Every structure is written in structure tokens, then in C-alpha cells.
Amino acid sequence: MDLTNYKFSKDHEWVKIEDDIASVGVSDYAQKEMGDVVFIELPEKGSSFVKGDACSNIESVKAVNDIFSPLSGEVVDVNTTLEDTPENVNKDPYRSGWIYKIKFSDPAELTDLLDANQYEEYLKGI
Amino acid sequence: MNKLPELIFNISRKGKTGVSVSLNQFPDELIAINKKKLRNGIEDFPSLSEVETVRHFSNLARLNHSVDNGFYPLGSCTMKYNPKVNEKIAGIDNLSAHPYSPVDLVQGNLRIIKELEEWLIELTGMDSFTLTPSAGAHGEFTGMMIIRKYLTSLGDPRKIVLIPDSAHGTNPASAHFAGYDIREIPSNDEGIIDLEELKKHLDEDVAALMMTNPNTLGIFEKNIVEISKALHDNGSMLYMDGANMNAFLGIVRPGEIGADVIHLNLHKTFSTPHGGGGPGSGPIGVSKELSKFLPVPRITSEGGKLKVKYFTEEGIGRIKNYYGNFLVMVRALAYLMALGKENVSLVAEDAVLNANYIRKELEGHLDLPYKGKTLHEVVFSDSGLKVKTLDIAKRLLDYNIHPFTVYFPLIIHGAMMIEPTETESKETLDNFISVMKTILKEAEENPEYLKNSPHNTPVSRLDEVYAARKLILRWEKSEV
Amino acid sequence: MRYFPLTDPEREEMKKVIGINDIKELFSDIPKGKSYFPLDNIPSMLHEDELIEKFMKYGEENEFHKYKSFLGGGAYNHFIPEAVKSLSMKGDFLTPYTPYQPEVSQGSLQAMFEYQTMMSMLTGMDISNSSLYDGGTAAAEGVLLMVRKSRKKKILAASNIHPEYLEIINSYIQNLDIVIELVDFDETSGKVDLADLRSKTGDDIGGLVFQSPNFFGVLEETDQITEIAHNSGSIVTQIVTEAFSLPFISSPGSNGVDIVVGEAQSFGLPLSYGGPFLGFISTRKEYVRQIPGRLVGETIDTNGKRGYVLTLSTREQHIKREKATSNICSNQAWCALRASIYLTILGEKGLNDISRSNHLNTAYFVKQLSGMDHVEVKFKEDFFNEVVVDLKNIDIDQFMNKLKAKGILPGIPLNWFFKEFKNHILVNFTEMHKKADIDNFVNAIGELK
């Protein structure tokens, strides 16, 4: 799929920007590494995070992985459909598998993120 | 057709019961409880007759693999035969006292506890024991609290516990609940703790090293004496996880190779049955300087009579109700008495002989990442195979063999950890070896067949993802 | 020796295959001088008949069985049907390990699933785990669960919970930066002092742990306790040490309790000198990811058939290591299996009848004592199957000795645990006490006037 509008953190989260709101999810690579997702602990709407904070976690049968917020800001929406269909993170990580939306406070932080090509290069080095 | 019996809730008929006990006939007017506190029935609770209950659980029992019905080489779990006589002994009515019975009326029970302590002291070379912890992990937690209390008495509890990357998951969890941060240290190429690597981590923050010996690869930590010295020079303690004590019972005393604290698993080395996951018993042995920090109760001897101390000034306090899993202790003592000095070393000798025999016979057929001398268990990897460890494990079920421990230790890719124990005959080992060779051949020729195994079990491969997503943790009345 | 199936010729053959001459070669990694220690201090082996005789002698050295006991305090003597004993002793229940391979463990797993369901029904909660070590450690796990869930490190504990449980809680938290503050009990009713509870609740409190029936055998005002605690945002954990109270008394869940922990020894386990017993924890569905210990869940196999597996193991130590909800690994699975059989065979009717009879036996004793003025039942209302008897001017040691001389173990002296109760004993009645036993006990007390 076309990932031109997506940016990636080295912790394998993606963000997609619309105005001052960023949707956040995990990359296809991350979902494959985790295996079948069974539960996502969503952050609370209205809570604030600093970039790098563990703000949510994803549970597979084998492990629990923290999601580190790729940007600072306030959570404005969470994907409650994942409560019943956590498998969307596996099946469709970049669309219906989004986890939360954050109103980011520091646009400068975006420059720390990788674009799709850079992320692909980064994965090769892992 | 499902081979599982119906759930009891679906075969229940209100009003049935399987119990008949004579009850005093006192009138309800005596009830001295405010009416609003009383309960009106237990909604949907099952009601079965005696015969239905007996059939239900007999049919369930038949669906289990157990030591009693087949080979069970589950690594690090020491699934040895559980002698039947021990069950008879544990069932002696005159041992089943109330835990608050006056001590002069339970001298026999206190003697059992005391004598088992003495056996364990003799076999481990430790100064003193508590038998109270319920299981290995409970013992670890107790042991780490003892270390913390001891170090605190010297002025500083310190902050960090070192744990090798091959350790059981209980080690870091137990140390954490005793208030410590964990630092993992890598094993070396031989699969053991590297003395020089260890020394790099030793500073004034290090409270202890938790070491399993022999470790989870079945390899003896041959530098243990030097490791213990390095720790002690740094003011740190050596905690020895004795889960694998079956490898040198009656041959090595941990107290003589530098252990300050050790836990044993009566449900492994000392033949008490695992009961499908418990009860266990995880006694803790300590060196002399740590003995006053043991938890209560402590049994003492005064003029031939045994007494109980319920409080000690310096100890870590109470970690479990009453005395511990007493009937597990009874079985363990009976086991040791049956062995006696004539046989106690044979436990480890035969266990190690059996493991090395399997190793030798399978070495050319499976990848063996760590080639050092192994004691009671051997760990292969699935490297180079067309199937995964899990597939081989599941296929073994079709041959009425319980699989080895899978995917542990984590430092081996697709680990297969095989521990035969000393209570298996050569025929059983030969059969296992030949089954393994057959399966490995199947893996080459028809990997798909293995990936879909097991084929002959009461249920086929179960969907763990479904279970974790649906989280059906109890029966619910279906809404029709 | 009969535990070792290898023969000497087989051992020789196997050594040859391995390529050694002497078994000692396999132990050569052990430092010099540290292997093959002398075994002189170890006794000689016993044959099977000698072994049985030896342990029968320990049993005879015990004398407790010559007495009629009224001891309770967290360990209770209930009737156990023979079918429970015989079924639970089946080797296929007794000798497997934890069900890591579910395809060959459906027997244990389904029985645990049934156990989890029955414990949830009895406690009135959504879910139960498959066992903890015992009531005391379950109480400590309940406190740790409240700390995790609330993210607050201060917990209130009623001072009339089982004193050993409080000791265990204090041991468990001693290095975890958690503070326990005690809530008083009312000296007249024996129940939690609600005014004191109200004054101690607040934003900084993560939860409250109390016990009902409490250590004095008295039922608490559970609905009021939960209301007060919930109003200040605290989680509530109820301890139950006598599980046989559950069928007769309104359930913890119906009174708003969030977590129920306790001891289920009463469900089919003999007194066993205090162990193995059966710890349990039941709670709300939304707490499931925070609870300690193993859980069995229903699933399907590749053919879509019903089956059971251990689930949510991501909470546990073997995956989460130091971040796990608890370090527990081996638990009391067989004890839970036994409880499962016991609860099934009794059924709703058996449980209700026996539970009611426990209370009535106790109430009969209280009534018989009410005519005496040299002793007095301390808390006369809302007891279940235990009461405190105030011996007033009778010296407790003399009392104990005189009843012992009549073949009676009258109860637990409360001065073991509570300084303020110098001359008081805690007395328990179950269905094992027949009317004649109670009458004898009452007469023996009457004679001490």
C-alpha cells in the first residue's frame, strides 16, 4: 500500500498527520514480529504524553509490548473498535488498526521520524 | 464427536446431591443472622448425583497424560515416578492435625518437619532450613527477602540482583517482589556464567547473583567456587536455584561450593506428585550468618520435646499460613527414608546416565548448540529442520510421550529441553529415541503432517489466540 | 531398589554407548574435592513395610486425635465424601505437571474451568483464577492487585482480619514501598468501626482489605463498607477464610466487593496440619489482566471442537519476568481439582444444607451458653460458625487444661494474637459436631462455675 503520508519511529510506530492531529499505530513489521494480537490497552482520551512515553500496550499470545508515543501531545481519540477486533492490528495495521489520535504540541518532533523509504532501509539493518 | 465430557453445568438437575451426612436438626428460629445478610440459593450452581460425579471426573482423568501412564521428559520439571506408598502415608489420619493444635499433641508432626529439615541440611551442607514456602518461586521470594534483610543488617540492602539470561522467569519476578532491580548477564559460548564477565558487573550496588546450578542447559556451573568468592569479595550473596538438584543429589553439597541461600523443589527432586501444577514445596536452606533471618514458624527442641517459635526478632516474618504444605513434606521424607544412604546418590547417577544416553543417541540427528558436559538434562535446537520444535512436540503426543520443555531456555533457538529422570527404564528411553528418529524422518518427508499434529489426541491442536481474544474463563448460562 | 528400573548390565551397556568407563566421568565438571561427600550421617534405607510402620508411629506420637476439637481460625474440619478422596487420588490427576500441552491435559483443564466457574458463582464475581497457595498469600496478592490497579501505595486493612494473614501481607510488602494503615474494630459488635473507616478513607488510599466472617467469626456490614470505600474511590477486597460461609451468606459480589480472596480448604481438603490448602482469588472482569496466577480459558481445536488452554499467560513470570503480576508458578492445582470434585458432588443442595447446619450448630451452642453467668459469648449477633467466648474470671490456662482433661480442645486462645482479649477463646462448629458433642462441651464449661 501507499505509505507516502506515513512517518515512522525507530520503535516501529507510524504516524499519519492531518492538520495538527496525528493518528498513531504500529508498523506492518511490528505486527508480524508480535504475532496474533489479542488485546490492546488503549490510552485514555484526554491524557497527555511526552514523546517516548509508554502510552499503551499491545498483547499477543507470546508477549506484551509497550507503545511509545512518537510525538508529544494530548490524546483526542482512541480506536475503541480494537476492543472487539484486536486482529485489525494484524490484518490492516495502517488503516483500521490505528490505535489513537494525538493533538501534537511540538511539530519539530516530526523531523525525528523516518519516511517510508528511510524506515525500510532502517529495517534492513535490524 | 467431542471426546470431552459435557460440562457439569449442562448435565445438572436442581435438587440432586451426591452427599449424605447426618446433620443435627435444630430449628431455623435459632438463626442469629440479620435476614438481609442471608443468601437465597446459588444461581445456576450445578447439582449432580454421586454416580454422575464419579463418571464425570473418571472420564476427565482419562484425558490426561501423567507420569503414571507414560514417559514425561519435561525438562527442568523432574517428572520422576511418585511412589504410591507415599500417598498412603500422606493419608494417615493421625497426621492430619489442626494447625493450631497444642504443640504437645502434635509432637509426631513436628518431628517429621524437624527430621526432614535435618535430611536436607545433611544433603545440601547448608546451616538451616525453612520448609514453609509453598513452591519454588515462593522459596525464591523468601530467599531474596532473607538476603535483603541480612544485607540491611550490615547497613545497605543494595539495589541490583544479577540473573543469567538462561534463568527461569521466576528468578527475576521473585527478586523484583523482594524490592530489587534486575540486571541480566549473558551466558558465554559454553552456556555458563563467565567469571570475567560477571566481575564487570560487580559493584557496590549488587546484592546477589541468582544462579541455577546445574543451569537450564543441564550444564554444571564449573566456576561456581570462584564466582562465589568474587561475589563475597564484593559483599554480595550467591543465591542458588536448586530446581535442578536432581542432577547431583547425594553427590554435591551446595553449601560446600559457596551457596549462601538455596531453594529445593520437593515436587521435583524429592518425588512428590505435581498434581497438575501443584501443590509443591520450596524449602529454603541458608548459611549460618543468614539463619536468624528465616521466616516463622521455627521449630526448636527443648529437652527432647519440640516447640514452636511464632515470632523472631530478626526474621523476615511470616510468608505463609501455618507450617507450609505439610503433607508434601511427609511424602518427601518418606521418599528419602526409602532411599537411605545406600541409594541416595543413585538418583543423580541414573538421572545423569539416562540424560547422557539420550544425548548420545540423538546428537547426530538434532542440533546441539552447547556442547559442554551435561548432567540431568540435554537441550537441542530446531535449527536446520523443516518443522519447528512445537511440531515435533505435538507429534510426540501421538506416541503417548509427553514432550520435552519447549522454547526454554530462551538463549536457544527452538529449544527442546529433555530431562528423562532416573525412574525410566532403558526400554522407555530406547522407545523415545526411536520415536524421535521416526518423527525427524517424518519432518524431512512430510513436514505438513507434523504441522497438523497431534492426530490421535482427545482434541487436535488448540487455538490459543482464540482463547486469549475471547477470554471465556467460566461457563455462562446460554441465553435461549 | 524399586524406584530405579535400570539393571547393572544395562548401566554398563549405556556407559559404553556414551563412551565412559566410570559414571564419575559425567560429573567431572564439579570442582575437585567437592563431589561424592560422605553419606555416613544418613540413615539406612527402609523397606516399604518398615516405612509405613515408621509413619504410623509418628501418627501415634501425635495425640490430637484423642480429643474432640473445636478449633477453627482459618482451618476447618468438614466432612469429605469417599468419592472425593478416591477420584482425586487417581494417578492421572495426581501425577501430571502444569498443563503446558493442552491436547493431553483436557481432564485437568476442564476440571479447572469448572472450578473457576463454581468459585465465581459462590463469590458472586465475574471470574476466578485456578488457585493461589493459601488464604494468607491470596490476601497479600489481593493487596498487590489493589496497588497495581489503583496506582496508589497506601492500603487500609481492618484490624480484625486473620492475624496470620496480616503478618503475611506485611511480609510481602516489606520491600515494596507500600503502606498499610489499620482500621479499628468496634469492641461491642466485633465488626469494622465504620466511623474509623470513614475517617481514614481519602484520595491517597488505593484500597481496603477486610474479612467477613472476620477473625472473630462475625459477619461484617459489607454493603456499608463497600459504599464508604467506593465513595472515596478505593477498591475493596474481602477475605473469606471460611469458604463454607459462601452458600449461606449473601455473596461478596452482591455487596459490591471488587476482589474476593481467601481460603477454600473447607471444600474437600483435610486439615493436613495446615497444608496443602487452597488459596483463591475472584474478581471483576475488568481486572483480569492484573490478576495473579493461572487462568484456564475455553477455546476450539482445529476441527472447531471445544477445548481448554491456559490463557493470558502474558501476565505471568515466564513471559513478563520481573514485570509479571506475581512470581507464582506452581500453585495448588490438585487442591483446586479436589475442590471441583467436592463442590460438584455436594451440589447446591448439599452446600446449602451443610452451610446452614454449621450456623445452627453454632447458634445452638450460643443459646445453651446464654443461661450461664460465669462465661459469655462476646459478639452475639451475625456470627457464622465461630464465636468468641469470654471466660471472664476463669484463668484461660486453667480453662484449657480442665477441658483438655475432659478430652476437649475448646478453641484458640485469642491472647495469642490480641492483647486486649486476655481471657477469650475462639470456638468453631461444623457439621462434624453432633448434638452430643456440643452438649458435652457446654456441660464441661458449665461445670467450671
Description:
The complex is a heterotrimer of chains A (126), B (480) and C (449). By secondary structure, chain A is of the alpha+beta class. Helices cover 16% and strands 37% of the residues of chain A. Chain A has a 7-stranded antiparallel β-sheet with strand order 5-8-9-3-2-1-10. In chain A, strands 4-6-7 form a 3-stranded antiparallel β-sheet, with no helix packed on it. Chain B is α/β, with parallel strands linked by helices and 480 residues long. Chain B folds into 3 domains: 54 residues, no CATH class; 252 residues, Aspartate Aminotransferase, domain 2 (3-Layer(aba) Sandwich); 121 residues, Aspartate Aminotransferase, domain 1, CATH 3.90.1150. In chain B, 33% of the residues lie in helices and 10% in strands. Chain B is built from 12 helices and 12 strands. Chain B has a 7-stranded mixed β-sheet, with helices on both faces. Chain B has a 3-stranded antiparallel β-sheet with strand order 10-12-11, covered by helices on one side. Chain B has a two-stranded antiparallel sheet with strand order 8-9. Chain B is globular. In chain C, helix 7 links the parallel strand 3 and strand 4. The longest helix of chain C has 37 residues. Chain C starts with 7 loop residues before the first helix and ends with a helix. The interface between B and C is large, with 206 and 201 residues.
CATH topology of the largest domain in chain B: the name is: Aspartate Aminotransferase, domain 2
Q: CATH superfamily of chain A, called what? A: RNA polymerase II/Efflux pump adaptor protein, barrel-sandwich hybrid domain
**Mean pLDDT, all residues of chain B:** 96
| Series of H and E elements of chain B | HHHEHEHEHEHEEEEEHEHEEHHH
Radius of gyration of chain A: 13 Å
The poorly predicted ranges of chain B are none
The CATH topology name of chain A reads OB fold (Dihydrolipoamide Acetyltransferase, E2P)
Give the spatial strand order of the biggest sheet of chain B.
Answer: 1-7-6-5-4-2-3
